[in-house]
Design a protein that fits this description.
Blueprint lengths: L20 E5 L6 H9 L6 E6 L3 H9 L6 E6 L4 H5 L4 E4 L11 H22 L4 E4 L4 H15 L7 E3 L2 H15 L10 E3 L6 E3 L12 H12 L1 H8 L8 H18 L5 E8 L7 E9 L2 E5 L7 H27 L2
Parallel strand pairs: 1-2, 1-4, 2-3, 4-5, 5-6
Antiparallel strand pairs: 7-8, 9-10, 10-11
Amino acid sequence: MMLSSLPARFFSTSAVKESTKVAVLGAAGGIGQPLSLLLKSSPLVDHLSLYDVVNTPGVAADLSHIPSKAKVTGHVGAENLGEALKGAKVVVIPAGVPRKPGMTRDDLFRVNAGIVKGLAEAAAEHCPDAHLLVISNPVNSTVPIVAEVLKKAGVYSPKRLFGVTTLDVLRARTFVAGKKDVDPTTLKVPVIGGHAGTTILPLLSQNSAGVTFSDEERDQLTHRIQFGGDEVVQAKAGTGSATLSMAQAGAEFTEALLAALNGSDGIVECAFVESPLTDAPFFASPIKLGREGVEEILELGQITPFEQKLLDELVPVLVKSAQAGVDFVNSSE
């Protein structure tokens, strides 16, 4: 089963039969605004519900002037979060603070964990059957936070919770294509593991173009894909992190999921989900999407000794990160 390489707007939408509300939590932020712009243009979205603590009405008004199928509503402040979520089929969560120069994802955890926990509690109350797509970093811990909140509320389903790691896949495709002069729009490169530094493991040996790499090229590409976010943080020189590329990644995964929920078959994407593949409770790998969300977690296939070594090293880190998320929820009760 090959990874999908096109946004869902290129898939058949003939199976769409019901109104689809998508809520974006953190819609006025650096990721939220371009993400909302991309989703406004999606033929799979009927109602785009935008929420943030500030500025959402302006963002909603701006987007509402774009002629597309999706109705746009803006909701600002905690007192309106329930209305933003009510009836949502998919909830995308880019809310939180961006990473700044010198800031690790552990630093981000201390800031963003409480934000994500509160949003998960609201989703559990107002749209318990929605599919939740977590972008807020550090994903290795925020996804377990959301899972723990949903479990305590009695509404958790592993088929409906995703950590969006699509940006790692986009970087892998872009960087490999640039190095080997192949078409990045058709190239497929699975990326497994987590969504932070050395927990990100691109399976370069499984690239769809069949290109090969010297050890030096392999090492350089692996490191660049793992730490691609640092390139953007440094280039923006204190003004932000990867927002535009993350918005593209978030929109692509959201559209792929919506297409699968509406009956399109054969859609495979990488995502950070509850997984039996390793000792880590959550793990990113290629998954087949279906009408209920996660339809099948695919096997990793043949990997090289180099990739196996990195996999063995990253799993304990993911276990620790997941436990940090669980401990945060339990300690804040």
